[in-house]
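Q: What would this chain look like folded?
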Amino acid sequence: MILPSTSQHRISTTILLTFCISWAFLLYIALTSHMIIFHDSLGYESLGKAVHEQGWEFFFKTGPQREPIYFGLIALSMSIAQQLAIPSYQPALMLLQLLLLMSTQVLAFLILRKIKVHDYIIAGAILYLGFSPVIVNSAFILWSEIVTYPLMLLLILAYAACLHHIQQGPHQRLINSICLGSVFGLLLVLNMFVKGAFEIIAPALMLPIFMKSVQALRLKQPVLFKRSIVVLCACLFTFYAPILSYKWANLKYNGNFTFTSRVSSALYGNIARRMATLDSKKWLAALAYVLPNEELCHRLYGQNECFYWGEIQGIIISKAKEREFDQQNLTLEQRNKDFIKLSLQKVTSNPLQYVSLAFLEGLKMVFWEGMGITYIVYPNLVAQLYAYKPLEYALKYGMPIVTVWALVYLTTLAWTRRKQTTEAQAIIFALFNTLVIYIGAYTPFFIHGRYALPIAPLYVICIALWLNSFLTKKT
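A: My prediction, written as structure tokens:
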């Protein structure tokens, strides 16, 4: 199938119609659905209410807490509801989150245009972002992932702009390097204030810029060296100044120089679980547990074997170690250091086993449509559509296959066109690097289905790029 050519310089009627249909559907859901506050949502609501009523000083005094931006969004929605005399904050929050999803669609459109994807395929991507059961579900429940959607796409644009700017001719102004590096650093901060894993992800994303400076120094290219160093320094300052300030605020108000309190214990619990002596049945259960269907694992290998690979087993291990730390009266900072030290010791005891099981854990990231519908009551027609079993299974098990093919294609493009200096290639590299690093950063931990949601829009872009490769004429 070959699609007809379209203009890249204007927004077609197809695209406009796609946005109108998608936004009408999303607005209908926002006005006719309501959230169910349960599990993690209770914690988000409670702390958001505390920020609204008692301010950010209370947030820090009772910390270290989880990442702050989403609590701020909940507090803002409560303030709006209070000003408008609305009995519940939920409608205001759902409309704010609706705007975030709409902005995600617009940003996806801009990226797809920049990498020269056909308008019909762009329209399909926009519709998918507006109708996908999992993406729509995440936009109207009390989870923080919705905030990451536009932030991740803005990060891709800023990252690509930095990489493209560094490769340009000698007439680029210094102020441009400073501004681009600063915007990239700021977006890394904002993403970290939603997902703490960016404390690991951010330095890894900066690494290619550092490598550009090393390469320029080796090849005696002073202009390229100066430009890459300025971008890197601006990014480093803009990222680490707010992060260190936030940690100092935690130190001042609760005595802990840290960003959150959850990372090191979760790291230890999951690594200790993986690095135990495993028999063949446990290995097979680990493989089955990758699929978003625990019942299949239970039927094949039994509940006990599968329970071992669940999140609770890692929590049990980490809690046992925390009780040992309690007896030693260790501070939170000392505990974090010991957890990380013990985790590294276990990894180095059998690196092959760790890498194998980390790879299996990472595979969960491609099952991003496997979460199902949770924590929301839809109108009957939408609920019936999303509960339709053939659609559910097609998305749950079909989209991972499509996603893997799209990632293979993206990897091929990133490698074969690595010497190109176009804006489109910079975006392709930014997509590839961000996806690889993001997935890699989560592999030491237990991966929930929701952890893949921040990169779901990136997956949709990659799939559109892959489809574009064989549905359009080569020019």
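The chain has a mean pLDDT of 92.
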